[in-house]
User: Which sequence fits this backbone?
């Protein structure tokens, strides 16, 4: 990963408090586990049927049968549990996830999330994205601030098919940490070397900027 993306993933790991049950979604969120110490007291959940995920492992050391929802090789920890999909989704749907981290194509200023389909491009399906977005007690999006063409991913209204409405609490990007509030997007932190004006120009909706110094990560 680039330095900016690695810094973003490391910052996202700071959202995880001891004792939480956390789902790390496909893509960048699955990298968060590598920024947690091996003895950090957290239960990481994967929708394909594993609770208690340890550090990721290289191919040559991997158990070929042990993967996360994105297909990356992972390890277990003492107390890890395996279960079928119905049990896994029962955990999600019953509100037992304290936090889920998801990727995004777009996030609206109201907290609407679009992260599963770009019309005209192949998609394997929404999978567990809807349940994760709707049922987790807190939803944090981990994403680049703009797409590959430089278009904002943080917008006034999503133009892509929605995953869930009003579900996103916080967005961590390669440029900033931004919260979704009743008044819209609010800047909380800046990535090292990034200025407020850069973030405002890369955001496709009004951005509330606090007075005084803004924390840097």
Assistant:
């Amino acid at each position: 990963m680039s330095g900016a993306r690695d810094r973003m993933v490391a910052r996202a790991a700071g959202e995880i408090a001891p004792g939480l049950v956390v789902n790390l979604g496909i893509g960048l969120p699955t990298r968060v586990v590598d920024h947690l110490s091996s003895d950090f007291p957290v239960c990481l959940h994967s929708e394909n049927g594993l609770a208690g995920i340890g550090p990721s492992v290289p191919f040559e050391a991997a158990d070929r049968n042990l993967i996360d929802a994105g297909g990356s090789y992972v390890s277990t920890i003492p107390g890890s549990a395996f279960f079928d999909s119905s049990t896994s989704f029962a955990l999600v749907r019953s509100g037992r996830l304290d936090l889920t981290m998801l990727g995004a194509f777009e996030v609206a200023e109201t907290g609407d999330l679009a992260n599963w389909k770009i019309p005209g491009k192949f998609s394997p399906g929404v999978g567990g994205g809807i349940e994760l977005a709707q049922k987790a007690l807190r939803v944090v999006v981990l994403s680049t601030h703009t797409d590959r063409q430089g278009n904002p991913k943080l917008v006034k209204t999503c133009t892509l098919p929605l995953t869930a409405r009003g579900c996103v609490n916080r967005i961590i990007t390669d440029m900033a940490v931004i919260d979704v509030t009743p008044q819209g997007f609010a800047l909380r932190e800046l990535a090292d070397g990034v200025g407020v004006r850069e973030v405002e120009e890369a955001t496709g909706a009004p951005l509330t900027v606090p007075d005084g110094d803004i924390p840097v990560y």
User: Anything to note?
Assistant: The mean pLDDT is 94.
